Structure formats: C-alpha cells, structure tokens
Amino acid sequence: NGLCIVITPLIALMKDQVDRLRQMGIAATAIHSGMSYSQIDIALDNCVYGDMKFLYIAPERLATESFRMRVQRMNVVLLAVDEAHCISQWGYDFRPSYLRIKEVRKLLPDVPVLALTASATQMVAEDIMRQLEFEKPNIIRSSFARANLSFAVRHTDDKNEQLLRVVNNVDGSGIIYMQSREGCEQLAEVLQQQGISASYYHAGLPHAERTMRQEEWTTGKVRIMVATNAFGMGIDKADVRFVVHYSMCDSLENYYQEAGRAGRDGKRSYAVLLAASDDNSKIVKHFEAEFPPLDDIKSIYEKICNFLQVPIGDGLYSSFIFNIHEFCVRERLFGGKVRAALKLLQQNGYMTLTEELENPARILFCISRDDLYKIRIDRQDLDHIIRTILRMYNGVFTEFRSINEQDIAASSGYTVERVKELLKRMWQMRIIRYIPSNSSPMIFFDEERLPTKDIYISPDTYLHRKRLINERFENMVIYASNQTECRSVVIQRYFGDLDAQPCGICDICLAKRKRTKNDAKTLCITILKLLSQESLEAREIGRQIKADPQLVAKAIDILKSENKISATSDGKLTIIE
Of the four listed, 47, 230, 435, 563, which is most buried by Cβ atoms within 10 Å? Predict the structure, then answer.
C-alpha cells in the first residue's frame, strides 16, 4: 500500500517510465519543469487524495512550497533516488539540486530510502550514503561483470576499416557512438554507401524526427544507429548485439554505461572501442573547453539572464524556454563554452539546463486589464477568445502562464487551429505575448537572479571538478592502452570489485587463450621428441623442458587424450606405436 516517490533528473526517461507503468495498469504521474502550474497542482492532489502508486519528480521541484506542503499529507512508503551518483560531488555528474533530498527525508522521517546507480565507485557510494544521512552503511552491490559481453579495444588510425569489420562480422543491431553531430551524419552516410542499413541521431534534430528515428531502430527497420551520447536514455531494446565507440569516452563510468546497452537479453554481444593515435590530444582540447575562465562564466550568466529578460531579484524556481543555438549566434559565443559554463553554474546551484522536452504554449498580456477593456476590438471572435482565456487562467497579466490550446478550444467552441490563429492575431496586435507549444530545452532558475558581481563559482569546486575529470580520463586511457589484463577485471576493479575474475571472452583473454593453445602444441612436439629417445617420468620431462610446469602437465594430458602416449607399469611415459 502507499506511494513511491522516484527522484530522477531525466525528464525524457521520467515520461517513458510513467507511460509504461500506465500501460501496465499501474497509476503513475510525474512533475517536472515542462508542466503548467495547474497540471502540477492536479498531479500533487492526485497523490494526496487518489490511489497513485508512483510519483516521478525532478530534484529541483523538491524545494517548491507546493510540493513540501503536500508531501507530508501523502501516504509515502518509499523514497527512491535514481541516478544517485548525482548527489555526490565525487560523482561524474554532480547536481546541487540533489542535495535537497536530505531535506525531504526530514519531512518523511520514517520512510525508507533506496538510492540507485549503475556506475558508482566505492568513494562515490560512501558519499551517497553520507549525503542521504544513512544511519549506517548499507550497500547492495551486484557484480559489474557482464558474462555475455565481450570487451575489445582496436588500436588503429583507419577506424572506418575496423568498424566495417565489426559491422560485417557481427549479426544484429548495433549502436555506434561519436562525439560530434557532423561526424554522426557523415559516418551514417558512409555505412549507407556500403549497403548497410544505418541512421543517425543527435540533439540537433527536431524532437519529432528523433522520436521517429529511435522508433525505426527499436523496431528493427534500421539496423545501426550512429549517435552522440544523447542517444540511450530510455532505450528499451534487449537484442543490441554490439556497441562501438568510434570516439574515446572521457570516463570509464560513461563508457561502461553506454557499452552496457549491448546484450541485455543475456546473449553474446560485443563492446568495441576504436582508439587512434591522436585521440588523447583531442580529449585534452575538450578538457580545456570544459573549463572556461571564471570571469567568462559570470559573463555568460549575465548574458543568459538578459537574453531571458529576467531582472535582478526575480526568477526563483522559474523555467524558461532556452534556444542555446539562437543565444550563441546572438552573443557570438561558442556553444561548447556556453554548455561548460552552464554545467558549472548548475554545480554551484544557480541554474539548470534541462534536456529537450515538450513545452506547453504560454501567454502574457502586454496591457493591463483596464486598458484591455478600452481597446475597440471589431471582431467578435477575438473578444470571445479573450473572455474565455480570462475565465480559465489567472495571473496572465503579471507573468507568462502555461495554457492548453485544446482546453481553450473546447471551452470556446472553436477548433484548435482557429484558437492558434486568434492567439497569433492578438500577438500581432500587441495585446499578448504568445509562445506556441514547442519542443525545446529549458533553463530552470535554482536561485533568483543575482548581480553579476555576487556570482560565486567556488574555486574549490572548479579545481576539484577539473582534477576529477582528469583522473577519470586517465583511467579511461589506462583501460584503452592495457594489453595484458582482462578488460572486465580492469572495469570491475575501478568500481571497487577487488575479487574480479577474468571473463575469458574479451580480446585480452582470447589472445591469452590462443597463445596458451599455441604453446601447448609446441610443447607436445617437444615431449614426443624426448620420448622418441627413451621413456621418461613426467617430472623428468618437466626438468628437461624449460617451461611452466602447468603447461607441461597440460601438454602431457593432451597427448594422453589423443592416445599418442601412455604410462608404463613403472610410471614412465612412452610413445604408443
């Protein structure tokens, strides 16, 4: 009985989970920055008074008064924290909004907490428990080993040739990860020219097109998806046979998560990293772009606030549609630098850039209520639509309010298309400011806008993050350059499993097995030469052959099983004629 609250930062995944639960007949709802005030109120009321089983909520919403007032009236029986590494400053994707979870724990003191992550090192796991104020350490850790997943690294400066080997030798669907959008498009074209069914996916595509492309790949209409790391959240495809990383990842955490999308049905699958001689230098350049000077970060903060028309002292917990491309063009800024600045602003608790999502239409009346009644509106339709909007929505004279064009159509008796026409007409007449429903990223203000001089980017946070990212990349390089140790063991040890055993199926293990097999064949020939001269005991053979005693014993067993030698009554080995 009761309600489970799931805290997750991924709005797209949140929507996917809610849709799937509802399809299964389980009552579920979500609250995030893409919803209108009325939609949020209805969802919260359903959790208080209805029979809701799951409430998915973005972490920044935990601080709002509307949530805190209602959560204590809900019958909450479990608080689940997804992507829990986000709460740790040691984690690779730290988010300050996650620190508010401990405040919710105080409102729900007797409710158990479950924190979940697929990629936390021991240090991060301990920090998660400390931040969530666990009374005592309590970790349930499944193995990081994937018994069916064969890891491999291919060192080559001709990545296309190696890629085609994988694609042509492994049946089934696959994902190829790249860093650049242009690279995705170009590589997909290369594969298509080779007669291979391939498509591409990145955040620069319109929302509807991305949905269509993902659907085509999921259903098998397209075999291979070439994508940036924007592709992957919410993917539910068990029969992915291979994941190829065309570009070096910046951490083993990211690599393990992305490679782990292969073989979820338990069948043999492959995770291949293509490493070129210049990959390291490319990552170093990427690092430099990740950490713009502190003065540049403050300047970008000021420019974003001006772009969104948020005055000083305003904006707390507000969300705004943010077209980063348009912003960069207007301000003549490099997109990578702006994203890096936003990441650091987010980590210092000022603002959060959400992933692209469906946003409702919004309106704001540009004139006062009194002035509105003074305007002579000749067309009856406009007067009727204005009256309908004022009857349905409060606060439209003081701030942008989310509206639903379909609800307005139902209430006014017009079609949705006619409602949109009338709203655009009022926009042209400067009666309202109108933002049609759209798919776009949004910026959420975690704090009110501050004077630029008061923006404080902690040098400790800045340098600490820089050092952590550097350490993570160094571990990724160690993984890629390793030529002697099982790849699965390297990954497992990184995540704290010190008792990891060789997988037997990665490129390193397979090479060792091949060498052992070849060594055994050579030893068999040597042993037969010795026994052709005289019968010998096994220990005598071992003394005469300078090799690993275990390999010598294995070679003797092979010769016995092939009926080439046998033991005499006095314990000596002899050739069977």
Answer: 47
Specify the amino acid at residue 327.
Answer: F
Q: Is 307 exposed, middle or buried (0-12, 13-18, 19+ CB in 10 A)?
A: middle
Residue 293 burial class via C-beta count within 10 angstroms: exposed 0-12, middle 13-18, buried 19 and up:
exposed
- Cα–Cα nearest to 164, from 277, 247, 244: 244
Give pLDDT tens digits for 312-328: 999 887 778 888 888 99
Q: Which residues contact 290 (CB under 8 A, 6 or more apart)?
A: 340, 343, 466, 469
All residues at 6 or more sequence positions from 389 whose CB lies less than 8 Å from its CB, including other chains: 363, 396, 403, 408
Tell me how far apart the alpha carbons of residues 213 and 190 are, in angstroms, rounded to a whole number.
18
Bridge pairing between strands 54-57 and 3-7: parallel
Q: Rounded distance, CA 472 to CA 467, Å?
A: 9
Average pLDDT over residues 201-206: 82
If one counts every other C-beta atom within 10 angstroms of the C-beta of residue 379, the result is 10
Residues 6+ apart with CB under 8 A from 32: 11, 14, 56, 57, 58, 61, 354, 357
**For residue 163, which of 121, 191, 198, 135 has the smallest C-alpha distance?**
191
Say if residues 450 and 316 touch (Cβ distance below 8 Å). Answer: no
Half-sphere exposure in the Cβ direction for 519 (13 Å, CA): 16
Q: What is the dihedral of CA 448, 453, 454, 455, to 10 degrees?
A: 70
The percentage of the chain sitting over the pLDDT mark of 70, rounded to a whole number, equals: 96
Q: Two tokens at 561?
A: 């099983």
For β-strands 3-7 and 76-81, DSSP reports them as parallel
Asked whether the beta carbons of 255 and 211 are under 8 A apart, the reply is: no
DSSP type of residue 536: B
Q: How far apart are CA 459 and CA 347, in angstroms?
A: 12
Closest CA to 71 of 98, 95, 96, 105: 105
12-54 residue pLDDT tens: 778 888 988 999 999 999 987 667 677 888 899 999 998 899 9
Distances (CA, A) of 82 to 7, 26, 349: 6, 19, 20
Q: Which is nearest to 16 in space by CA: 165, 292, 233?
A: 233
Distances from the Cα of 195 to the Cαs of 158, 161, 164, 189, in angstroms?
20, 15, 11, 10
Q: Quickly list DSSP for 459-512.
A: HHHHHHHHHHHHHHHHHHHHHHH--SS-HHHHHHHHTT-TT----S-SHHHHHH
Question: What is the mean pLDDT of the segment spanning 473-484?
Answer: 91
| Contact assessment for residue 74 and residue 45, using Cβ atoms and an 8 Å cutoff | no
- 267, 287 contact by CB (below 8 A): no
pLDDT tens readout for residues 219-267: 999 999 999 987 876 577 889 999 999 988 888 988 998 999 999 999 9
